[in-house]
Design goal:
single chain, 4-stranded mixed sheet, 3-methyladenine DNA glycosylase, about 290 residues, mainly alpha, 11 helices
Length: about 290
């Protein structure tokens, strides 16, 4: 049985220190992005998490304690401006019962997805070919990252894509495949089959832990959201290094998945991310169960 009552009472100096530490941590990610925005500069690796996931830097900086803490002291009353908080036991706490009833079905679905992904054996044979399938047989003017050249001419890029088995299990990656690349994939994922196919060897499934964390805000402890962002950021870098794009202008060496050594290097990263994702997935699942119990 999941407890539905906060059991961690944080004194004002304690939670203010935690909030400050969180803000300082995430500013290392948000400040450079906002500075680039002010200058009108693009960064095809760093900008992805902000553009694709659409969670504002100011929201990531904002600290929330999660549903297991009571914030003590007069300063905690500032949190009452959010409807998900209430005054309780001499302090202020997130109210899990404030989670919207109309979102309960999606919360049940998410809990099932997280549980199934955690329990399903991971697969490590995709080698990042989803990015190759997204440029397969495109004309140069159709390619998404126009600021980055491809490592190979179009015909060689196509030949490499065709020479390796594509096993993408992630719908939100598969939906960006070019039309001629779709039949090359051994799986044909759909939105409805996400929970049946998602597996923790997939880089994008692990990146999406950040999405699930912020979608449950402000109930998600902000440290968990930041941990998921840190994982997603590291994954995105490997994702682009293994892609057909030449990222050396960004200081990123290619992971040459067209070679046996490059595929071995990619799988090593994959396995590390799969292991690193599991405790984050478990924490998100526990949060879902906590909210459902309330």
């Amino acid at each position: 049985m999941v407890s539905t009552h906060p059991n961690l009472r944080l004194t004002e100096p304690d939670w203010l220190a935690r909030r400050s530490a969180h803000e300082q941590r995430v500013r290392a990610w948000t400040d450079p992005h906002q500075a680039r925005q002010a200058r009108g500069e693009k960064h095809p690796v760093e900008d992805f998490l902000w553009e694709y996931y659409s969670f504002r830097p100011s929201w990531l900086r904002r600290w929330h304690p999660g549903p297991d803490a009571v914030l003590l002291g007069d300063a905690a009353r500032e949190y009452l401006r959010w409807p998900e908080y209430l005054a309780t036991e001499g302090g202020v706490a997130v109210n899990p019962a404030a989670f919207e009833a109309k979102r309960r079905d999606s919360l049940v679905w998410l809990a099932g997805l997280l549980r199934a992904t955690a329990e399903r054996p991971p697969a490590f044979g995709c080698f990042g070919l989803h990015e190759w399938a997204m440029v397969y047989r495109l004309r140069p003017e159709e390619i998404r990252h126009t600021s980055l050249p491809l490592r190979f001419p179009p015909e060689e890029t196509a030949r490499i894509t065709e020479s390796l088995p594509i096993r993408c299990s992630h719908f939100d990656a598969f939906r960006f495949f070019t039309p001629p690349a779709r039949p090359l994939n051994r799986l044909q994922p759909e939105r409805a089959t996400t929970a049946q196919l998602e597996q923790r060897g997939c880089l994008h499934a692990n990146m999406d832990l950040y999405k699930w964390a912020f979608k449950l805000a402000p109930f998600t402890p902000s440290e968990l959201t930041a941990d998921c962002f840190a994982l997603a950021r590291d994954i995105r870098e490997v994702d682009m290094r293994a892609s057909p794009y030449d990222c050396t202008s960004l200081g990123l060496a290619a992971i040459a998945i067209e070679t046996p050594a490059g595929r071995a290097e990619y799988e090593e990263h994959q396995r590390a991310f799969a292991e690193r994702s599991q405790p984050l997935r478990a924490r998100l699942l526990a949060l879902c169960e906590r909210l459902l119990a309330a």
